[in-house]
Every structure is written in C-alpha cells, then in structure tokens.
C-alpha cells in the first residue's frame, strides 16, 4: 500500500468524508508527499552548517551527526547505516576534507593501545630464533646452488 493511501486511510478512520472531499484529500496528501520527496532528494535544499556549528559538532568524546543531530563515538558506522560514505557526507554537508569520523579521545585511546601492544614495532633482539624449517630450506637451496639469501627472504628467515 502506498504512503498516500496509508495516510488517507488513517485519516478516514476518524473522519467522514464525501467522495469529492476524499478526492481532494488524496490529491493534497499526494502533493505534500511529492513536495517532501523533491525536497529530500534536492542537494541544494539542504542548509549547510556554519563554521560555528561545524566546530560545535566536534566534541572531545563525541561527534554530532548533521543527518539526525545525535551524538556518536564512531560517525563512520552511523553513516554506513544511512547509506553514505565519509566523503559523501562531507560533500553533502559542506564539511572540510579533514573533518574527523571519530572523536579525539577515541583516537588517543587507540594510539595508546597500539603503543602498549607495540603494534608496528619489530625488535630483532627479542625476536624468535629462525625456525628449523627455514634453516633447512636455506641449507637445501645453498646445496643446489641457489641464492640462499633469496630463500631466506622467501621463508621469513
């Protein structure tokens, strides 16, 4: 059932209309819905936020979505539900290219976690010794006249 028919049906549940009045109500509701649909799909009809509104939307522990006015910790996840990518969102609302998708506290929290777990660091002094498999493969390659360094690189030695 179309949206127009559902609205008119709900209206008729509490109101008695003549057939002429029913036609007029149907026409008015259909025009109103059409106007709303054009307004929603027209990118020029969206009011762009001011610099002050953009600045106010970025809190230390939240970001305010211009789509629904709610606070979020991960704006990207919310935008996915709305069917937008971060770039489309920035373009739609006229936001700068460096507008964040996560609040500052979350970025600091993830950075601290990465440092604590030593993500991206490799210390050869504390690394595990070469595996037996890698040593045997390098020895076999050397005995066959192949470059042992190429084999070591291939087997993570």
Shape estimate: elongated
| Oligomeric state of this protein | single chain
- Return the structural class: mainly alpha
**Helical residue percent band:** 55-70%
* Major beta-sheet overview: 2 strands, antiparallel
Strand order of the largest sheet: 1-2
- Strand share of the residues? under 5%
Helix-strand string: HHHEEHHHHH
Individual helix count:
8
Q: Tell me the span between the first and last alpha carbons.
A: 67 Å
Quickly describe the structure.
The chain has 157 residues and is an all-alpha fold. The protein has helices at residues 3-12, 19-41, 51-56, 75-82, 86-93, 104-116, 132-143, 148-154, and strands at residues 63-64, 71-72.
Characteristic terms for this protein:
single chain; mainly alpha; 8 helices
Explain what this protein looks like in three dimensions.
The chain has 157 residues and is an all-alpha fold. The longest helix has 23 residues.
Topology:
Elements: H1 3-12, H2 19-41, H3 51-56, E1 63-64, E2 71-72, H4 75-82, H5 86-93, H6 104-116, H7 132-143, H8 148-154
Antiparallel strand pairs: 1-2
Helix pairs in contact: 1-2, 7-8
């Amino acid at each position: 059932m179309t949206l127009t028919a559902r609205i008119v049906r709900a209206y008729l549940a509490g109101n008695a209309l003549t057939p002429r009045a029913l036609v007029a109500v149907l026409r008015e509701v259909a025009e109103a819905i059409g106007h709303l649909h054009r307004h929603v799909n027209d990118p020029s009809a969206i009011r762009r936020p001011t610099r002050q509104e953009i600045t106010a939307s970025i809190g230390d522990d939240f970001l305010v979505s211009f789509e629904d006015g709610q606070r979020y910790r991960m704006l990207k996840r919310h935008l996915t539900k709305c069917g937008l990518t971060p770039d489309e969102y920035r373009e739609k609302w006229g936001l700068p290219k460096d507008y964040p998708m996560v609040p500052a506290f979350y970025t600091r929290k993830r950075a601290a976690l990465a440092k604590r777990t030593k993500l991206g660091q490799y210390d050869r002094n504390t690394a595990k010794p070469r595996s037996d498999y890698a040593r045997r493969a390098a020895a076999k390659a050397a005995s066959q006249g192949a470059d042992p360094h190429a084999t070591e690189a291939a087997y993570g030695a």
